[in-house]
Amino acid sequence: MQEVNKPLSQRQKQILKAVIESHIANGEPVGSKYLVENKQIASSSATIRNEMAELERRGYLEQPHTSAGRIPSEAGYRFYVDTLLEEYAMTTREIQEINEMMKAKVGELDQNLSMASKVTSAMTHYTAISVKPGDRQAVVKRFQTVRLDNHRFILVMISSTEAVQSKTISVQDELDEQSVAQIAEALNACIAGKREDEITAPVLVELGDRLGTNTSLVMPLLKLVHAFMNGDDSGKMNVTGMDRLLDYPEYSDMQELRQLIGTLEDKNDIVKLISEAEKDQSNVVIGSESDVKVMENSSLVFRPIQKDGKTIGAIGVIGPLRMDYARVLALLDTVTGHITNMLEEPSSAKLIPGETEQAQSKENS
Amino acid sequence: MQEVNKPLSQRQKQILKAVIESHIANGEPVGSKYLVENKQIASSSATIRNEMAELERRGYLEQPHTSAGRIPSEAGYRFYVDTLLEEYAMTTREIQEINEMMKAKVGELDQNLSMASKVTSAMTHYTAISVKPGDRQAVVKRFQTVRLDNHRFILVMISSTEAVQSKTISVQDELDEQSVAQIAEALNACIAGKREDEITAPVLVELGDRLGTNTSLVMPLLKLVHAFMNGDDSGKMNVTGMDRLLDYPEYSDMQELRQLIGTLEDKNDIVKLISEAEKDQSNVVIGSESDVKVMENSSLVFRPIQKDGKTIGAIGVIGPLRMDYARVLALLDTVTGHITNMLEEPSSAKLIPGETEQAQSKENS
DNA sequence: AATTAGCACTGACAGTCCAAGAGTGCTAAA
DNA sequence: TTTAGCACTCTTGGACTGTCAGTGCTAATT
Predict the structure, then answer these.
(1) pLDDT tens string A28-52
(2) Which domains are seen in chain B, by residue range?
(3) What's the predicted TM-score (pTM) here?
(4) Residues 6 or more apart whose Cβ sits within 8 Å of residue B224
(5) Residues 260-279 of B with CB under 7 A from strand D
(6) Which end of chain B is more exposed for a tag (fewer CB within 10 A), N or C?
């Protein structure tokens, strides 16, 4: 019988660790006898039983029912992650596999993220996600226009974060090269570099003047700019290996699984979750630590990807509470390391494709 | 006892239809008694039993076990879809709901497709997909460059199908406006309008010459062009409402569900499936009619979206064999109708944003 | 000849009971 | 403080049961 709040003894820690690791490996409640036999713990099962009872009293373990072994509680996992975790030493095979998969292509950030997500899912056997946070205070740095034909041109917008978006625009009037160039000029003069709250009525009036014959474009263009700044692009997220969820019996409850898949598809909750956790400097969200209800029985482990001190993305893993935290954290480290490298050390070639996407458009005016 | 191959009698058709529709509604095997009581069929249960036995002999019905009712076989569904299907009359409420959801935004094709997918999933209660076929024989019609700073510029490629893709490119040499313009010129002169097999060694030599100091860009640029032409964009697919699968008990087998989710994520199989079915002028693929193994117990119903006689996309639904084909087909019709309208009758504004996406890129050289 | 009532039969399903097994808490001894 | 031992608890799986839905077949009816 221990005093409450007394720190855990060495042996208690050892037992807690053993219980958690066994449970992570097997998914089943672990009993005192099992520990004696499989983990070399130098005490009898009776002693272990006593200690486990104490650990339960302290809230680190739980018992599904009287005659079952113990499973870790959320607090148990939390303590484990914060204190007990040993760094997982990746096998050379694992390292090789990752290298193999990731060297393939030095692509764009989006592509890198989705590839990283694939790799992560494949290596960890959990569902992996990659997210790209929206950039809220972006501003259009430059406009560019490309004339397609008499009635259509492409508007290219480059944001301060160097995001690029292009739109095909159709107008009813005749368009010559000059008027198309004029549109770009006008936009660059009036809108470029301004935040949305700086785009005031007088600015718009001037823009209208500069557009000359194309005055009627003001509102539609403004709409595009607005859409771009408040990008649909923000909070992009990518899920890989959803089917992995079904590998774990904890997701055999249809009702729950259904909801989880729903949230994974919806993306909002997860993106929010990650950005909040990141604020708290935390990389591991265990069960109900998140306030997303359907994540109650799941853990989320992620690692942000930074560039110039700014978070430009994250790779993560979603799985049951009994996630192999050590291994996942190690794998995430190497995977995100690869990406950071790609971003920083351009390939041997002189040319480094940035991230892009493409757009297809066909419509008449 | 009927002759083999004799066409089905009126009554047999009626019974088959009743069985299928009951099964679609309830998911349970339907028995003779049930039909007498709930569907007004003017025969005794014994007669119906005899007819059902005959229908089973002909391969339209199956019996899960001796003392269960009958369920439709794949052939049964096929016959139903081809012959027995009555047009589903949508309720005004349904029509309104769709209108409501789809009027919201006249956006880009990609966005429209994904919205349509959402609407379809919400209305049908099945998992919905939208696909955009790749454009295999696309060619780069025009190149455009935008200088960012001394070491970086953006390359904009516009394909013959008016797809637009932009890439940020970093080089080690100093870049002035002129050399950036030169790059575009060179590309336009040498590469634009050519299929890949027309880009031969002499062409590349000339390109090198024209690039002047930037000769070393040839290969990297070529790589980009190649990537663009064989676009990662091709075969884009979008899945909405995966969680709906779990609404149907036929997907309670974990193993199977896992595989199905896997294929939905992988996308390739489905895209292939749709494009093949479309060749056969078919909109309904029932179970093992597809050669995708995991689709054995699922049906796929879709409807292509055409523009100027070319298929530019498709919306579809994936669900259990006992899908409500009539309703799904009707809903798909209206949803795709909406999209076609959007493509053809531009909004009241003068400006029609085409489809686009955006790219973000930050890297140093 | 076609239909139907009636009946024996079949197989799934849900419930009950039981024995086995795993693991515990507690007591008393080391 | 640790441990051996034992009684106790609870789950799990198997065997057995009765019920029930639905059938196929036969004989009677139209």
Answers:
(1) 999 999 999 887 788 899 999 999 9
(2) 10-84 (1.10.10.10), 106-134+234-344 (3.30.450.40), 140-230 (3.30.390)
(3) 0.83
(4) A353, B155, B157, B167, B169
(5) none
(6) N
